[in-house]
Amino acid sequence: MLNNIFNYFARFFDPESAHKLAIKFFKQKNIPFNFFKCKKEQSLKIKVFGINFENPIGLAAGFDKNAEVYNTMYSLGFSFVEVGTVTPKSQNGNAKPRVFRLNDDEAIINRLGFPNEGMEKIYERINENPKLGILGVNIGPNKENATDQIDYLKCMKKFYNRVDYIAINISSPNTPNLRKQHEIKKITDLIKILQIYKSSQQIAKPIIFKLSPNLNNNEIDRLSDIFLEKKIDGIILTNTTITGKEHLLDKNKNEEGGLSGKPLSLHSNIVIQSFYKNLRGKIPIVGVGGVHDGKTAYEKIKCGANLLQLYTAMVFRGPYVASKINRELVCLLKKDGLKNISDAIGVNAK
Ligand SMILES: Cc1cc2nc3c(=O)[nH]c(=O)nc-3n(C[C@H](O)[C@H](O)[C@H](O)COP(=O)(O)O)c2cc1C
């Protein structure tokens, strides 16, 4: 029934209007969204960043940009939700249309450019809606400050005591120059600024960096060295890609923006494997990019991911995709004779 409603949204509305309707729908208080939620499974429980996760599947940043529906998302089977990207000031983002469904590829291209209501309003909303599960906030700079680092600190200070982890978005392709934050000098400075703030706080919250998939081997090696040296808490691999569109089938394939969904899967797996080999399990990895069923989730864990996130699969496969993936993962683990999901991490990256 819920899947039918979603298919209807997707068939008859442009992607951004469909998303708006979905958010409105998930705000309904009188619908028992947890109807299809899979039961808690011992084999899926995992501790990462010192936090106990019920299962490894989280909702990626971008779906609940303004922190409106995160509590409903736990009912759908996600063990954690990342809201945002949030910037200090509200901003409109790029001109519409700016989100494109690629039905033939089970993919999306978006060039949203961080439209959001700004940190004050979003902070108030989180304050008024106590979280019912693990909540992360993904933060980024306003467009005009893309190469500065002050906006990250502003947002971090605002949310630090309200959420379970902070994700530092340096990888959206839709904010010009943002990806320059990957440069060694810049990221070293950014880590330093954020770690100084963290060490001034009573409680240590994980600060994890969300990276681009468009990194070469040399960049991956150099970033890994810095991450190990600075002992960062974790990384999210990956954001959307700006390459690889030439192989797509859909008529929308030449739209400008970041590509997500099925075609990103292999690419993000390669990046995860490369980082995992360098980091040797010392820094946890959240794998994201094209996860859409148990098999693709399991593959990412085998490449080295401790946790997973998804967004695009929910658009194409409906709101219960996380529950379905969890059920399939339980079967895959059983088939391989593994007691817990953590036993599979990195087995294909040795
Ligand atoms: C419409 C859309 C908006 C997104 N917005 C954000 C965002 O604001 N911040 C962010 O870090 N990632 C954003 N992402 C990227 C996702 O969080 C994720 O990294 C990417 O889509 C790959 O995962 P997927 O293939 O499961 O969608 C967005 C993705 C989509 C499709």
SSE blueprint:
Layout: H1 2-12, H2 15-26, E1 46-48, E2 51-53, E3 57-59, H3 70-75, E4 80-86, E5 99-102, E6 107-110, H4 119-128, E7 134-139, H5 150-159, E8 165-169, H6 184-199, E9 207-211, H7 217-230, E10 234-237, E11 258-261, H8 265-279, E12 285-288, H9 294-303, E13 307-310, H10 312-317, H11 321-335
Parallel strand pairs: 3-4, 3-13, 4-7, 7-8, 8-9, 9-10, 10-12, 12-13
Antiparallel strand pairs: 1-2, 5-6, 6-11
Flavin mononucleotide binds next to strand 4, strand 6, strand 11 and helix 10.
Description:
It is a single chain. By secondary structure, the chain is of the alpha/beta class. It has a single domain (about 1-345), classed as TIM Barrel, CATH 3.20.20.70. Helix content is about 35%, strand content about 15%. The strands form 3 sheets. An 8-stranded parallel barrel has the order 3-4-7-8-9-10-12-13, surrounded by 4 helices. Strands 5-6-11 form a 3-stranded antiparallel sheet. A two-stranded antiparallel sheet has the order 1-2. Helix 5 (about 150-160) links the parallel strand 7 (about 135-140) and strand 8 (about 165-170). Helix 7 (about 215-230) packs across helix 8. The longest helix is centred in the middle third of the chain and has 16 residues, at about 185-200. It binds flavin mononucleotide (FMN). Flavin mononucleotide binds next to strand 4, strand 6, strand 11 and helix 10.
Essential attributes:
binds flavin mononucleotide, alpha/beta, 350 residues, 8-stranded parallel beta barrel, globular, TIM Barrel, 13 strands, single chain
